[in-house]
Amino acid sequence: MARIGDLDLGDFPLWLSPMEAVTDAPFRSLCKQYGADVLVSEFVSSDAVVRMAGKTLSKMDFRAEERPTGIQIFGHDEQSMRQAAEIAASKKPDFIDLNWGCPVRKIVSKGAGSGILQDIPKMVSITSAVVKAMNEINLPVTVKTRLGWDSNSKPIVEVAERLQDIGIRAISIHGRTRAQLYGGTADWNLIGQVKNNPRMHIPVFGNGDIDSAQKAVEMRQHYGVDGVLIGRAAIGNPWIFRQVKHFMETGKELPLPSVQERKEICMQLFEKETECKGERVAAQEMKIHYSGFFKGLPGFKPVKMKLMLSSSMREAQELLESYPE
After folding, report:
1. Which of 16, 60, 270, 278 is the most exposed place for a label (fewest CB within 10 A)?
2. 82-94 residue pLDDT tens
3. What is the predicted pLDDT for the residue at 1?
4. Distance (Å, rounded) from C-alpha 324 to C-alpha 121?
5. pLDDT (tens digit, 9 = 90+) per residue, 200-217?
6. What pTM was estimated for this model as a whole?
7. What backbone torsions phi and psi does residue 144 show, to the nearest 5 degrees?
């Protein structure tokens, strides 16, 4: 049974991996509907949180049905990270997650995200400061990170121990280095080494290349992780969580949703995005999901091309209705 502090996550929790401009409240709620066990906000800048920037603060909002959920923070300064965690805690999340894994250049160049992997003592120091502040209000702190900076520096086994020793309650590991970005293949052997290190007693969650129910079960069986994070494979594909759970329970693959169900799910998300951000912004943000929603459908490409140019819910609905069942 995986636990983060007093929070019971179940036997093998499936996380929706936080992704900037993807895992907003509407998409998180949809994934929860289809079986995601743990949700985390889009990452928020500690500096922007401390400045009380409105757009950043809104990213920390979540709905009751999303629980258990965490707020993820990134930054490079101990004081701002601690203050941001205290502000985030006022939103009453179930845990605070520190992002030490984002590989994006503009984040890394400031020493934030996976940039901190070049300065492990600083990573430990900042994490310790946040943990101490959150311990005062009994709010667990977790970390998401990568194997290391590049192929010559993969200190994750030692790093995980050090972070555990200063009080984090769980660690999620993406099986790539910063240098790999999202290319190549995730190295789950090192994730397994962290999990099977006899000194580790906090939950270890694995991330990287989980794109099917079979893959999730394989990672559980081979490496013993306490749960998995599903990221890019969930974009336009929220039912992947339902598929994984069905396969774990029965050993059988669950059929893909019907064309009609896919249309309904797509428009449900569009409607939630519109309620949250307005129709114009929603139309833009839906574009990242269309390929996933309708992947593998014969002859759908012309409809998708038109969807990518559409700017309203009505137009999208009409285009979907033009595709036969």
Report:
1. 278
2. 999 999 999 999 9
3. 77
4. 58
5. 999 999 999 999 999 999
6. 0.94
7. -120, 125
Whether residues 123 and 241 fall in one domain: yes
Domain boundary among 212, 229, 250: 250
Q: What CATH code is carried by the domain that includes residue 264?
A: 1.10.1200
Segment 262-281 shows an average pLDDT of 96
Structural domain total, the chain? 2
Domain final position from 228, 250, 272: 250
Q: 20 and 103: one domain?
A: yes
Average pLDDT over all residues of the chain: 96
State how beta strands 14-16 and 2-4 pair.
Answer: unpaired
Domain that holds residue 168: 2-250
pLDDT at 308 over 80: yes
Give the DSSP H or E segment for 71: strand 69-74
Cα distance between the two ends of the chain: 42
Catalytic residues: 102
Tokens for 176?
Answer: 């790539």
The secondary element (H helix, E strand) that includes residue 52 is none
Residue 153, classed as helix, strand or coil, is: strand
